[in-house]
What we know:
Belongs to the YggT family. It comes from Heliomicrobium gestii (Heliobacterium gestii). This is YggT family protein. By secondary structure, the chain is mostly helical. It has one domain (3-87). Helix content is 74%, strand content 0%. The chain is built from three helices and no strands. It has helices at residues 3-27, 37-56, 68-87. It is flat. The model has no long low-confidence stretch (mean pLDDT 92).
Amino acid sequence: MGIGETYQIVNIAFEVLKFLIVIRVILSYFPHNPDGTIIRFIYDITEPVLSPLRRIIPMPASLPLDFSPIVAYILLEVLERALLQLMF
């Protein structure tokens, strides 16, 4: 496997994860069956990223919004750029 292929794999993995986080946020605005195959897949992939952030980021009682997807997206972007720069 060449350097270019490794770069693409890492880049695609991060992009897919960020895309799934955005899809999860959009899904949260609509009623859905959490046991559906696609929904379960999205939650299974994104929950390991979002869960630790939820424990760190307090949710204000006056504003019941989950900011963990925003923070996760930003952290994934920073991590992706740093990792790709270190690799290449």
